Amino acid sequence: MIYLASNSPRRQELLQQIGIPFQQLSVSIDESKRDTECPEQYVVRMAREKAAAGRALAASANPVLSADTSVVIDENCLGKPVDEAHALQMLRQLSGREHQVLSAVAIEHNGETVYRLSVTDVVFRPLLDQELKRYWRSGEPVDKAGAYAIQGRAAAFVERISGSYSGVVGLPLYETEQLLRQVGVICEAF
Length: 190
Prior knowledge:
The protein is of the alpha/beta class.
């Protein structure tokens, strides 16, 4: 059994998919990006800090897993939208363009933190304003980085991806499984 330092139902589903028993921990950290950080540094730092916060809450020495995902376009991290206008602005930026989804996964175990970064290229088809407004009204973009969920209705926006589908959802399973093996946790799916 591991600890999952995340409230994300998607991360919970992905861990279940590969047969990892876990106990969920609710962690809260300052997620402000530092002026000097590039997007890759930011997402890795967030995953590591969430793992450290989880370690402080964990009742045993079992590994603590955390992750962070950012949608990046033009070297800018698109966070979660604060309102409809913000969501529509982000989706318009992504329309008809390629962007990257960075997902870092970190595991804190025995006083050490190991991590990996997944980078996935995603290309959106051109999007019409009316479909973006309908998408917002669906409620799906509300708590999603970049204001979209590839595993939901926004799948119809995606022309192609190159990289990790599960990383775009929020937990890169290849990297996660490799880190779990590194700390001695074997996935039941294998």
